[in-house]
Amino acid sequence: MKVDTMRVIDRWAGIPLTFILTLILKPWERFYHKRNRTAQPNVQRTLFIELSEMGSAIIVDPAMRKLQAEKDAELFFVIFEDNAKSLNILGTVPKNNIFTMRVDSLPNLAIDIFRFMAWCREMHITTCIDLELFSRFTALLSALSGAPSRIGFSTHHDEGCYRGDLITHPVRYNAHVHIVKNFMALTNTALGLNNENYATHPIEDSEIVLQTVTSSPSELDTVRSKLTQLYPEYSDQRIILINPNASELLPQRRWLAEYFAEVMSGLLNAHSDVLVVITGAPAERDDAEKLLQRVNHERCVNSAGLFTFEELLPLYQLSTVMLTNDSGPGHFSAVTPLKVFVLFGPETPALYGSLGNAENFYLGLPCSPCVSAHNHRKTSCTERPCITGIKPEPVFERINEYLNQISIKNV
Asked: pLDDT band for position 372 (50/70/90)?
């Protein structure tokens, strides 16, 4: 199902459905469950909802671990089927506690909603935490979960983004702080640390450190073997990963292919000991091949579709640096020491920057960021000066400087 189709459904079906369900649910809770909206949530079996963003499954991890550490909560998660692998990176949520929803067609989605309702009751969900930013669909899922306590973002005095009154413990979304702190604020409300609708409990930087992942020798050897398939002379070359892709949720994030090619060619000419590896999913192989042809260098290879999702982490651990659009790999790599350079355009690193060893290229134009929670991350801009305005010269110079610095350290 196309992203714009989902937006249309969420608006034109979501608004009346959340309104109707509010009319039904709120009187019921007022008379039969009077304490649901004022009581301390029982977080013994907590369900997190984050459907559409793979990177958010990484960013929310500190908040989930805090709930585990302080209340020994058993965690559950619901996510779109295509994005579920992102939860396996850190393994905080057991695989048996993950519910996946299909979004390839409306009939399958409808069936999965009923499956979800049955699954929540089988799992005895006590609290539901909705991580999505003002999605009516996830507000409906929260209510349909049957959880007595439902925590999610609220506009409070802000106007717009209506999604009924289905959240029992609303938390005002703050568009001026990183999303990881917004997620942590939801957990703090679940723990009873915030005052009413505001995230008043301080969040220390020490709370938002990601866990690190180390691949096994056999996993590393598998990746080395695949690299040798791509480049038979591969031995100890420094690997530069190039991720020119971004999800269809926001294609405006993509840097120009000719800019990527210019940076790649410059690095290959400046360093005789590097291997440039273009990454991507199987569906992105053709675009990666076109980029490969632009560069036309023997030490540049196309790995799109070759590495499985599970092999990305050992690939990151074997690599020296990655250049990527603002997309999932910038967040997946955050659980490794890999140095990552991220190109930001219609969004801002102040809100969605990687929690790992990352540097950002961001112009910060007066129009940026043009996508937000309040427009459901949709922009009509086609010229994209925020991303096309990032020229290849400063990107090459900074990555080249970094490669030179670590070469000196290794001497």
From this structure: confident
Q: Compute the distance between CA of residue 169 and CA of residue 150 in angstroms, rounded to an integer.
A: 6
- Listed in sequence order, the residues at least 6 apart from 314 whose beta carbon sits closer than 8 Å to its beta carbon are 215, 219, 220, 222, 223
According to DSSP, the residues that pair with 152 across neighbouring strands are 130, 170
- CATH number of the CATH domain containing 379: 3.40.50.2000
Q: Are residue 172 and residue 303 in the same domain, yes or no?
A: no
Domain hosting 383: range is 217-410
Same domain, 178 and 154: yes
- Which amino acid, 22? T
Boundary-marking domain end, from 190, 208, 226: 208
346: left (phi over 0), alpha (psi -120 to 50) or beta: alpha
Q: Exposed, middle or buried: residue 386 (CB in 10 Å: 0-12, 13-18, 19+)?
A: buried
Examine the domain organization and report whether 331 and 393 are in the same domain: yes
407: pLDDT strictly greater than 80: no
- Is the pLDDT assigned to residue 405 strictly greater than 70? yes
Token pair listed for 110: 């409808």
Report how many domains make up the chain. Answer: 2
Residues 77-126: tens digit of each pLDDT = 999 999 999 999 999 999 999 999 999 899 999 999 999 999 999 999 99
Provide mean pLDDT across the span 26-39. 67
Cα 36 to Cα 30, 41, 84, 152, 400, distances in angstroms: 8, 8, 30, 14, 57
Query: Would you say the pTM of this structure is higher than 0.85?
Result: yes
Say which residue, 53 or 354, is predicted with more confidence: 354
Q: How confident is the model at residue 409 (pLDDT cuts 50, 70, 90)?
A: low
Could you tell me how far CA 267 lies from the centroid of its own chain? 29
